[in-house]
Design brief:
Length: about 550
Amino acid sequence: IAYGTGMMTEVGKIAESTTKKQRKEGRSMNYKKHGIAQPAKGLALRIYDGIGKFLGLTEGTPLQRKLSKLAYLLFGCAILLAIVVFAVNKFNVTDEVAIYAISTGIAIIPESLIAVLTITMVVGMTVMRKANVVIRDLSALEALGGITNICSDKTGTLTQGAMIVKKVWLPKIGVYTVNNSMDPNDPTQGEVVLGTETVSPVTSPDEKQDFDHQRSAAALKFDVPAGKLAKDKQKTEKDSDEEEPATMNADLEAFLRPTALCNLATVKEELAEGESIKKWNTTGEPTEIALQVFAHRFNYGKKGLEAKGWKQIAEYPFDSTIKRMSVVYKNPEEDQWVVYSKGAVERVLDLCTSVGTGEKNEPMTDALKDTVLAQMDHFARQGQRVLAVASKVWPGEFKIEKKEEGKHGSNVDELRPQVEEDLTLLGLVGIYDPPRDETKDAVRECSEAGIKVHMLTVSYHSQSTTRDRSDKKQGDHPATAEAIAKEIGIIPRNINILPKDVAESIVFKATDFDKLSNTEIDALPELPLVIARCAPDTKTRMIEALRRRGL
């Protein structure tokens, strides 16, 4: 239920979109736009809609419409039988003939059908009640029984919504990996190792195909139930020759500062009320909590830095149109002002003129951009959400000037374009949101029942996947959504086993799906099982496409 300011939420936007009254296709009577015959066609379809609504053939739940069709079919059969009776008697209709014809017609009507349906619904309601489901209206249970497709979000629905940093890539350093962490809020669990899991830009179609189906051992080191830890441990041991325990160094320290300071989440260990053992408690958005927890693994949290004298001068909150957040801090050690930014990889990458810190710093080139994007895709294909972290030293003093008398505010907002330019890319961070333990079984049961599950996902703190800088509907990387869909069984792990035309329509980016007309969508051999970066209207179009196919 969405009301008031709630309509600005994702659920509210979807509710508003689905309740919006829209005229069905082909009902227009504009002959200038659709041709001379359109007024007659449009009028005929409108009359059909009106009659269908009156007769109950186009309105109501699927069962109600089926019962209406059955009723009219039986009514037609009754009339036909009456005509047969009259014809046998050469239309010499006496009282006995009329009574016989009426009796024959009535005999075809199943009087107990409604009673049987009601009893069936009540039994179904009882089963649902035992599963702790509240049913207020029998028609809801009826609609539930007629489900053929399920459209679900990903984060927090199919996945736990408890995010954890799994990979951090620092240019010319390597990849830091978090292993064996079971609690996303506890920075003391698990271990951080440094490896060399880097990739090169894809330059040929053959390499692209191999890259698309890559699923390294590191991709399987996700948070898993305790029963599977043994297998994960064996996989970790195989890679131990290439990995070493992570230790603090200047490059990692430079990366951890923006990770901790360009962040609104809090992580602290404290005693819960009525308990004697300290527990780690977090507040904030899951993505930022994951970043803050990673910083705390090296005792480099935001509170600790601010206690040492780091002072926030300005904050530029996350903006969904530019997909990034920035802060300005004063460095007490070197008496200078620094800018820290994090956000969608390509949106941050476009603002960077250099890569790395200290002696490893070098100017940004197209080759380096390709390397960064290849590393981003590599993390995304492991089911991770990827963010970029960058920084720069502000030239001189960062001055906040009040506006002229009579005007409220200051020049802080006006400085944002200057703040977020000429940045230095420090690294990429891959955040993993593990699937729920019950998700895979639920998807399998749906598949066995003939129900298709579609993943329509969107996320605000995520990266783009193409070079299209004008794409405003950025969300989960299609490869990230695809990897999770494979993990829980929505799509096969090897899409190549499907026919080529079907395989091409399995995973869509919302911008590509939105560009298709309804006719083009209806012409697809199969509707997508995964759509990434969905806006509410994209989800609504998907539902309408399912309805047009009678699903």
